[in-house]
Amino acid sequence: MLSRIAESLYWIGRYVERAEDTARILDVHLQRMAADPWTQEDMACRALLAVMGTDPGEGPVTSARVMDLLGLDDRHPSSVVGALAAARENARGCRETVSSEMWECLNSTWHGLPNARRRVEQQGVHSFFRWVRERCAVMAGLTEATMSRDEGWMFLVLGRNIERVDMTARLLRTHERAGGSIPSWLTLLRSSGAWETFLRTYRGSLDDRHAAEFLLLDRLFPRSVFAALSTAEGCLADLEPDPGRAGVATDAQRIVGRARTNLEFRGADELIGDLPAVLSRLEKTCSQVNDAVSRRYFRQTTAVNWVRGAVA
After folding, report:
1. Which residues of the chain have pLDDT under 50?
2. Where do the DUF403 domain residues begin and end (predicted)?
3. Measuring CA to CA, which residue among 236, 215, 238, 235 is closest to residue 227?
C-alpha cells in the first residue's frame, strides 16, 4: 500500500473518532453546567479547555465560548466541525481505497457542516451533538461492513483506537480536576457512552474503584483504554507478519505493548491512587505511538537545498 494512502486512512480513523468523542464530552459537560446552578462557569470551562489542549485566550470563558472553540471552529482540527472536515479531506485523497458508501457518508456530513451553527441556534447543542454521533456511528458501521480486512482497514482501525485511548485519558483527567466526586464519575461514564453497560456489569454499584476499573481495564467494553490498546496492538502485529525471532518488529509495537502491560497487571485501587501519572503516561504513549507509526509507515520528506543551480 502507498504510504500516502495508509496515512490518509490512519487519519480518517483518528479524525472521525475525535469528532465523536469531543461531541460526547461537550454534550454531557455542557448539560451538567446548565443543570447545576452552583457550577462556576468560567472555572469549569477553563478546566475543560485545558484538558482538551485548547487555549481559551483572554477574558471570561463561557459555555458559548467553549462551544465555539471545541464544537464549531472549522479552522481547528481538534474541534468537532474541524475534525469532520479533515476526515473528509483525507478521504478525498484516497477515494480508490474507501468504499463509495464511506465516501458518501463523509461527504454528506461535510455538506451538512455549514448549517451546524444554525442547527445549534435553532435546536440547541444537544441536537447538534446527537447528529454528530449518529453520523460517526454510520461511518463506523460502513467501515466494518464494506472494507476488506486488509492493510487499509488495519490503518484506519489503528488510528481510531489510538485516538480513543487519548480521548479517554483526557476524559478521565476531567474527573481528576473535579476532585473525584461521584457526580463526576457519572459524567465520565455518560460521556463515554458507557453508563448503561456499566450498570449491567456492576449491578448499579457506582464507586471510584468500579468506574475506574471499567473505563481503564474492561476487556469487553470497546471504549475502555485496555480494549483500545489491545486492538491497536493487534493491528500493529498484523501489519508486521514476520516479526523475527526476538521481541517485536517495530517501535510502535513496543510502546503500545508496554502501555497495555502496565495497565493489565495493576489493580484498580493502585491505578486510582496513581491516576494523574497513569493518565499522563497514556497521553505521552499516544504521542509516541503516532510518531513511531509515522516514521515506520508514512512518507518522510526533507527540505530541498538548492546550491547554484544544483540540488543538494
Report:
1. 302-305, 309-312
2. 1-298
3. 215
